[in-house]
Amino acid sequence: MTLQLGDPAPDFRADTTQGLVDFHSWKRDAWAILFSHPKDFTPVCTTELGYVAGLVDEFVARNVRVIGLSVDPVIDHELWAADIAETQGHVVNFPMIGDPDCVVAGLYDMIHPNADDTQTVRSVFVIDPVNRIRLILTYPASTGRNFEEILRVVDSLQLTDAHQVATPVNWKVGDDVIILPTIDAEQAAQLFPGGWDEQRPYLRVVPQPR
Ligand code: BEZ
Q1: Euclidean distance between CA atoms 16 and 21, whole angstroms
Q2: Catalytic machinery residues
Q3: pLDDT of residue 39
Q4: Is 204 helix (H, G, I), strand (E, B) or coil?
């Protein structure tokens, strides 16, 4: 069955570069980014994994734990890590799942047979503290992902959960946000005592809460 937004994130046990991981126990009540890459020792993947390693402070600041995956065995991940460190300048500092039997890839629909029936596509799942899937992205093998965008989505989701706001087109941290349409005027007055710019009854703009 295809996973959709709001679904529970399937739990699994997997061999990783940091030992056996029971996903939900490893994640605890943090956010998680579970992402797959097609193949070890490939160029785009090398740049992605190095970049993600360099974002460690950004993930810590957002209480996000990161875990990678491909259908390569853990030993290949370990051998490849040296190349990533040398060419990208960052040591991979998060676990990489070795999934040669495609167990986790199958649970998360990371193999799209009409694209490639043996390798995972570039999937990203953002999973919240109560293990619900909040973002699903699928990129083709030949296109490296924009992990700044994925951090931006995490920022947006965390603002929504904390403050009942949505973020408009091309929003960046610090820009104005929008009161959720599900919040009525009475609730909005309590949540935003400073008021809002009511451009339409459904378009109520407020400064980003801190
Ligand atoms: C890459 O990481 O460069 C790559 C992997 C699979 C197919 C195409 C590119």
Answers
A1: 7
A2: 45
A3: 97
A4: strand
Residue among 35, 36, 37, 39 whose CB has most ligand 1 atoms within 8 A, to mutate: 39
List, in order, residues 6 or more apart from 59 with CB less than 8 Å away: 33, 65, 66
Which residues have C-beta within 8 Å of that of residue 94, sequence separation ≥ 6? 18, 52, 53, 56, 65, 66, 67, 68
Ligand 1 atom closest to residue 43's alpha carbon, by position in its atom list? 3
Per-residue confidence (pLDDT) for residue 210, from 0 to 100: 86
Give pLDDT tens digits for 168-202. 999 999 999 999 999 999 999 999 999 999 999 99
Claim: this prediction has a pTM higher than 0.90:
yes
What residues are paired with 33 via a beta bridge? 66, 126
Ligand 1 neighbour 44 (Cβ under 6 A)? yes
With beta carbons less than 8 A apart as the criterion, state whether 105 and 95 touch: no
